[in-house]
Amino acid sequence: MINEKMQAALNEQINAEFYSSYIYLSMAAYFDSENLPGFSSWMKVQAQEEVSHAMILFNYVCERGGRVLVEAIEKPDTEWESTLAAFEAAYNHECKVSGLINNLVDLALELRDHATNAMLQWFVSEQVEEENSADDIVQKLKRASGNPNAILMLDSQLAARVFTMPSQLAAE
Predict the structure, then answer these.
(1) Residue pair 131/98 in contact by the 8 Å Cβ criterion
(2) Tell me: the pLDDT tens digits for 120-170?
(3) How much is the pLDDT for 171?
(4) Model confidence at 86: pLDDT above 90
(5) How high is the pLDDT of residue 170?
(6) Which of 31, 42, 51, 110 could disulfide-link 36, Cβ–Cβ 3.0 to 4.6 Å?
(7) DSSP conformational letter for 159
(8) What is the distance between the alpha carbons of residues 65 and 44, in angstroms, rounded to a whole number?
(9) Which has the closest alpha carbon to 167: 87, 53, 74?
(10) Buried b (16+ CB within 10 A) or exposed e, 18-28
């Protein structure tokens, strides 16, 4: 059975992951309005990833005999100054999520909840990838420095990204 304090913290993280999905869907809509379908597609894939993260946590809480409590999801921003500003916001958001995951690991260690700690290690590694992925695009956008051709080339490259179901969900 999962500790009540851990269950509450994981429920908060489930909400945070769904909120992350909303942020990326909002960014996708922004990029669609800017006629940047590749950037939009990248964000839609990111939104799918965030839903999958929420579902991994959801399933884990249930498997441990806990109860998932679905709460309201905060409204995300809908406008950004530029393509770069949107990706900087995405990078900063991923850094914040990394902090939330680290806090969960700290709590699991404090509670001596080794099962939850083990499960969370996937998220620790995933956040390294998430931060790197967003930062890579931020750096490319900075190098493009407003060059429309470079932006369109990057837009074309980002369109190639596809969603891959995490192995934790693929078996279901």
Answers:
(1) yes
(2) 999 999 999 999 999 999 999 999 987 999 999 999 999 999 999 898 887
(3) 65
(4) yes
(5) 75
(6) 31
(7) T
(8) 32
(9) 53
(10) bbbbbbbbbbb
Could you tell me which residues come within 8 angstroms of residue 87 by beta carbon, excluding any fewer than 6 positions away?
Answer: 134, 137, 138, 141
Q: Looking at residues 85-112, what average pLDDT do you find?
A: 98
CA distance 172 to 168: 8
Q: Give the whole-angstrom CA distance, residue 82 versus residue 99.
A: 26
Residue 172 vs residue 101, higher pLDDT: 101
The position carrying tokens 């946590």 is 57
State the DSSP string of 61-115.
Answer: HHHTT--------PPPP---SSHHHHHHHHHHHHHHHHHHHHHHHHHHHHTT-HH
> In whole angstroms, what is the distance from residue 29 CA to residue 99 CA?
27
Residue with tokens 């837009």: 155
pTM of structure: 0.95
